[in-house]
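Query structure, 176 tokens:
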């Protein structure tokens, strides 16, 4: 694949930054791919995450991350009397592009202050939100809504202004 601004990299490790904007956080030793809804210098793939398939092949990515991204993806939208589930769709799509045992790292506002300070935040997550995306703990697999399967590696908090302002979740893609 040919990605702009990446140069030649002698590795097969792939890192994807979801919702990178102009602040893609590159990882050394990885081919770094930035994905965002608008074009920019750090954006390699333009995609309306949650509403369009991610333009990468299945089982391609070793590490994906989204810093201040997932809270901007709506949980539910109605369009032409049809219910769309962008949050579930983005999780399914991220899992699709990830290799088995690849990691997904997400940071999202958790405290009331951190979440409410930005009017573009539309999805506020519970501390254990990731359980919805575990195959063995989800009632919706039989409905075909959730197709991904992640297990928790780590869940911690970061301090910004207050001790629990940012929820940091590290998930592992389970395939097979």
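Result returned for the query:
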């Amino acid at each position: 694949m040919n990605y702009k601004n990446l140069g030649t990299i002698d590795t097969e490790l792939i890192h994807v930054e979801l919702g990178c904007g102009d602040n893609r956080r590159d990882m050394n030793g990885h081919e770094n791919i930035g994905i965002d809804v608008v074009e920019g210098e750090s954006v390699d793939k333009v995609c309306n995450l949650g509403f369009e398939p991610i333009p990468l092949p299945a089982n391609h990515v070793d590490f994906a991350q989204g810093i201040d991204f997932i809270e901007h993806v709506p949980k539910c939208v109605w369009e032409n009397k049809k219910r769309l589930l962008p949050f579930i769709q983005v999780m399914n799509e991220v899992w699709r592009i990830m290799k088995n045992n690849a990691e997904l790292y997400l940071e999202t506002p958790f405290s009331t202050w951190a979440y409410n300070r930005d009017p573009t935040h539309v999805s506020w997550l519970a501390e254990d939100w990731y359980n919805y995306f575990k195959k063995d703990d989800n009632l919706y697999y039989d409905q075909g809504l959730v197709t991904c399967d992640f297990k928790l590696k780590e869940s911690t908090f970061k301090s910004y202004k207050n001790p629990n302002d940012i929820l940091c979740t590290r998930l592992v893609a389970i395939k097979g």
